[in-house]
Amino acid sequence: MKRTVSVEIKNQVAIVSIDREEKLNPLSSQVFHDLESIFNELEKSSIIGAILTGQGERSFIAGADISEMKKMTSEEGKAFSAKAQALTQKIENFYYPVIACVNGFALGGGLEFALCCDFIYATENAKFGQPEVKLGLIPGFGGCVRLTRIVGPQMSKEIIYSGELLSSDQALALKIANKVFPTKSEMVTAAISKLELIGKNSLSAVRYSKGAINDSFGKSTTLALSIENEYFFKTFVSDDKEIGTTAFLEKRSPTFSHQVGLRELH
């Protein structure tokens, strides 16, 4: 069976593309399998970060494959949601930074998969939305949780209850998207440049920063600070701390290993 997800490496950046352009790149069980396989492979590779996008200009991910979902029993639907949620958590906690490059439609599961990335870049023609209620469903791949964390419960309820679409400018104003670009090419080029900039830093420190942010979010201040303190401790047992502080005192640029510390959390 043809893979539904493709991957290309540019300047140590993995560009992961949902490859079902003819159907606007919908999510399916096969897509989940292929995405999981690719991210498992990338964990073992020498990259500095990843981009998640959709093939073509029209769609990032236009949602779940409704023809597949229509045939599911309630238990199969629950398992489908659980599989998607596990995959979004895998991407959210991926060893390296992941930028969602949203070209065109990011609807339903598409928005949910964009939200699990570290941050989102978008094209001017991007459309964001959670229109599941129009199908008698709710966002079940993390949308009710992650969207609310970004825009707050009241705005999240308005977006989800209405099923209305947001333009790229609206997504930018709501801080769903970090930046908006005229074209997909410009967006992907900017994302690669940003990951190259990040890649000049200690990737283990970036990974620990991600862990501290993800694990402390929504916790009480006392617990959140304790979590941050534990990740700060982890940097002191990595080679990168010695490399970085020594280079600073010697007034030169550091050369980080990009290896030590990345596997210690799992």
Strand content: 15-25%
N-to-C SSE string, H for helix and E for strand: EEHEEHHEEHEEHHEHEHHHH
The CATH H-level homologous superfamily of the largest domain: 2-enoyl-CoA Hydratase, Chain A, domain 1
In quaternary terms, these chains amount to single chain
Overall number of domains: 2
Q: Whole-number average pLDDT?
A: 95
What name does CATH use for the topology of the largest domain? Answer: 2-enoyl-CoA Hydratase, Chain A, domain 1
Q: What is the CA–CA distance across the termini?
A: 32 Å
Low-confidence stretches: 260-266
Describe the strand arrangement of the main beta sheet, using strand numbers: 1-2-3-5-7-10
CATH class of the largest domain: Alpha Beta
Taking the sheet with the most strands, its summary is:
6 strands, mixed
Shape: globular
The radius of gyration over CA amounts to 19 Å
Helical region count?
11
Helix content: 40-55%
Count of β-strands:
10
Secondary-structure content class: alpha/beta
How does CATH name the architecture of the largest domain?
Answer: Alpha-Beta Complex
